[in-house]
Amino acid sequence: EVNTKLSGEHSDSAGYYHFLPSHSFSRPYLAQFSIIMSSNYKVLTEDGQFQTELGQAGGKLVVADFTSARCGPCQRIAPVFEEMARKFPNGVFLKIDVNQCQGAAASQGVSATPTFVFYRNKTKLDSLQGADPETLENRILHHYGDIEGEEAEDTGVPGHIDLIPMISKSGCECLNESDDHPFTQALNSSGGYLESDTDEQLILYLSFNQAVKLHSMRMKGPADNGPKTIKLFINQPHTIDFDTAESANPVQEVTLTGKDLEGELIPLKFVKLQNVMNLTIFVKDNQSGAETTNVAYIQIIGSPVQTTKMGDFKRVTGKKGESH
C-alpha cells in the first residue's frame, strides 16, 4: 500500500520523496530469489539510455523501476524486481536511479520512489507507486498478457500498441475453426494460420482484460482464400451465432482487397470504438469463393482506455487511507 503521508525528512537531495516501509519482506521470501542476473534486467546510469532502451524494446512490455539508493523501501523491493525479470523473460526491466537519471525521472513525472512505470512501443501504459511485491507482480501480469508465447508486435502507429497480449485467452472463442489450425495460430506472425472447417465462414470472439480503444487492424491471408468481407461487432454478452452475424448491423463492415491481405493497415471507426471489452470478427466470405478461409495473421491496434488503479488489486496490509 502506498503511504500517503510525506514529510521533508524523507526527501533526498534531488527532491524525491520516499514512502515509509509499507511491506516487510521475511528472509524466507527473499531467499527464493536467484542471484543470477537476467539478460532482460538492465541498470541505467545515464538519461540518454532510457529512450534508447524503450526504442529497442519494440513491442515488449517494459517495466521501469525509478528508485533511489537512499530509499529503504526501494532497497527492500530490489530483489523482487530482479526476480520479476527472470519470471517474465519476454519483458524488459529497467532499474533507474532518480539521482543519476534526473532528466528521465522528471520527464516521466516521477515524484516518489519507488515508482514503477509500464510501457509498450514507447507508449506509457500505467504506473505504480510503493514497495508491495504482490501488487507489483499482479500489475506486471495485467500488462504482460496471458496468451503463452505471445509478444506484442510493432504496430507502426504512433501512440497505439498491439492489443493481442491484452487478450484474455479464457474469454476467447472461434466458431468453425479447424482442429489443426485454431485461431491462436493467427495471433502472431510466427508462421501458423487459422483455417475454417466446414465452409468459408468464421466467427472470432476476442475478449480483452481491460477496456480498450480500437484504432486499426491488420489481417493477412492468401490471395485466393484469404478473408474478403468482415463484419465487426463490439461488447457482445456472448459469442453470436452465424445467423445473427449475417443479419445484425455491425459497428463496421470492411471489404478486404488482395493488397490489404499483405499486411496493409485497415483503419477502424475510432470514435465508435472507445470503450471495447470484446471484439467479434465475422468473416463472411473469402477472396475467390474457396471452400475454406485461411487467416495467416491478425493484429488489433489501439490503446487502453485508462491506466489501472491501485484499488483494482488485492490490498495486502492495512486499510485504504492508512499510513505506515
TrEMBL record:
Concerning SUPFAM superfamilies, the annotation shows: Galactose-binding domain-like (SSF49785), Thioredoxin-like (SSF52833)
What residues does the PITH domain cover? 152-320
**What CDD domains does the annotation carry?**
TRX_family
What UniProt keywords are attached to this protein's entry?
A: Disulfide bond
Give a Gene Ontology cellular component term annotated to this protein.
cytoplasm
Ranges for the Thioredoxin domain? Answer: 32-145
| Annotated InterPro entries | Galactose-bd-like_sf (IPR008979), PITH_dom (IPR010400), PITH_dom_sf (IPR037047), Thioredoxin-like_sf (IPR036249), Thioredoxin_domain (IPR013766)
Q: Which Pfam families match?
A: PITH, Thioredoxin
Q: Keyword Disulfide bond, does the record have it?
A: yes
- Matches recorded under PANTHER family: THIOREDOXIN-LIKE PROTEIN 1
Protein's name according to its UniProt entry: Thioredoxin-like-1 protein
Protein's organism: Pagurus bernhardus
Write the gene name: thioredoxin-like-1
